[in-house]
User: Fold this.
Amino acid sequence: MAIDLYVPMDATALSLGADETADAIRKIAGAQKADIRIIRNGSRGLFWLEPMVEVVTEAGRIAYGPVMPEDVDAAFVTALLAGADHKLRLGKPEDMEYLKKQQRLTFERIGIIDPVSIPDYLAHGGYRGLKNALAKSGAEIVQEVTESGLRGRGGAGFPTGIKWQTVLKAPADQKYIVCNADEGDSGTFADRMVMEGDPFLLIEGMTIAGIAVGATKGFVYIRSEYPHAFAQMNRAIAAAKLAGYLGDNIQGSGKSFHLETRLGAGAYVCGEETSLLESLEGKRGMVRAKPPLPAIKGLFGQPTIINNLLSFAAVSTILDKGGAFYKDFGMGRSRGTLPLQLAGNIKRGGIIEIAFGMTLREVVEEFGGGTLSGRPIKAMQIGGPLGAYLPYSLIDTLIDYEAMAAAGGMLGHGGIVVFDDTVDMAWQARFAMEFCAAESCGKCTPCRIGSTRGVEVIDRIRDGQDVQKNLTLLNDLCETMRDGSLCALGGLTNMPVQSATKHFPGDFQPARKAAE
Amino acid sequence: MSTAATWDQTGAKEIIAEKKSMDGALLPILHALQERFGYVDDSAVPLLADALNLSRAEVHGVITFYHDFKRHPGGRHVVKLCRAEACQSVGCQSLEAHAKKSLGIDYHQMTTDGSVQLEQVFCLGNCATGPSMMVDDKIYGRVTPQRFDAIIGKLKGGR
Assistant:
């Protein structure tokens, strides 16, 4: 019988040579006349160990990593196929501390299953949520989601059940389900990992949403920077159609749901929901004024559920195990689990799915092991390019929606980017303005013009010109952008800028810095 | 990109006809045109306007709104360097400087031999193993200047 090997096809694993590693293993195993089968799984999310190769043995799966293409020689392949000792042997993945300490719901199967195999998905508890949903009325499904306390995982944290209830009650001939997979925030990759590592989880969640509110058509809007995720979603949709999990009369229920993918085109602002809807309609990704809410007047003017990918993924779990089960995780008004994404200058970066209530220190220092460079941590940017920079002194802040807001930041999509003490926070503030200028859709003046003026003001500050006066001006500009912009792009650019000026004032005093 | 065909109206018309009944067809068509030809020629604008019942201004507006769509043929390979925060934290600025210097070009330019077009990108979702870059559709992590040179060397050698 063939020996089963797992070599991830996750983009991070690929970026470190997973394809070449798989080829090298295949070649050497062939020369050794070994009968092997290589399955391309998602990543378990321990990125410093990628490419992480696993072999199925009688004692369970044994992992090796990081297995760079140049590490693959005859001795390695011999050890791998026997699950035997080797300097790259890591042991059983489930015994690794990094994984043991997590509470994986959304990421339960990722890295374990063959991502595009329906039988594998079913064997690991997949489509139980849909089965339960098909036995319920739309109102009952929405009730389950409401009871779970799930809040939108895109960043705003709006209660998902309330959004769905609005669409359920809106009368229309055609409703739509839209997944926002335009994961543009630097430091985030959870959506990508789900699409690459367990795409049926998203398909199931969207199908449940469609059945709940009576929407027969859905779209997954994926950013073009994710070609691997896009291809994987297309493969998974084709497999789900073939198995009767998408299309007309799903599993003989008489219910229909059709799903298509759409590719973004490199515009960060299209992660904003109304801009995304415009883009899906084939237009410029210009932000719409709200109201009307997309739940009332969304895609092509019809009632639309538009949610982040992680929200739909959570729904599959909620309908499988119940709203009460999900609600038992977490604390306060932040219920369930959140896949945190630990990134930047970090020793052990990756995905950490855990119930709300950890501190930043537990994540960054205990899981992450501190900076990759070995230097002290100076700042952590939480929640993407529009999130605040928190100083090391705030490392004991709790990771939930309310605690982050109280610390002057936001949790956003759960990305944490770590910087060491070589970072120049005035440069980071300038970059935030530059990024806003590059990505502004141009519809509202504070964002379109303010961002360019912001770059200029920070340049003058860094140049030592009228520093105090210009800092006051910058503060004023930030407030104007915050209060006057149509959407979160212009409306939140103040967060990285003002958190930098507040927590790292020394970096904005070039004259004083030079004198020190 | 390395296999891009030269622009031809008949091929463009075929792509438009095949996809024009999709919901929100303009972006999928533009992606398909760019995939086939490496860019979207201005002569496609009236064809698209006609097929989708839009004004030429609307079509032009969409093409120029998105960073992805190119209006002129570019290099045989597109090299995209990530400039976002997670890559900044591990030194992408020095990689950018090295890339520009060794290729002798700035962003949005192509090398004189036409082999490489340099572009910036804000996040490839490879944020725990940066600095990251993408060459055509292939992604690379932990890109040091030495690794960059090795990858580019292969591109130039392997044309």
Remarks:
- The first strand of chain B starts at residue 77 and ends at 82.
